[in-house]
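ok trying this again, last paste got cut off
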Amino acid sequence: MDKDRMAGMAKQAKGAIKEAAGKVLGDTKMTAEGKGEKAAGKVQNAVGGVKDKVKE
């Protein structure tokens, strides 16, 4: 598994937690930041997936 995939999954998880915390606390800025981190993690995970396919 490519290191980008692992980092992307971690970033997605961190973003999901941040988004949920923002919703619970009513903090729209934190919720938006969490959504952004989650999206960035998905992109990074996809890049890692492409790198894995190229290596095969």
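PB: full thing came through this time. The mean pLDDT is 94.
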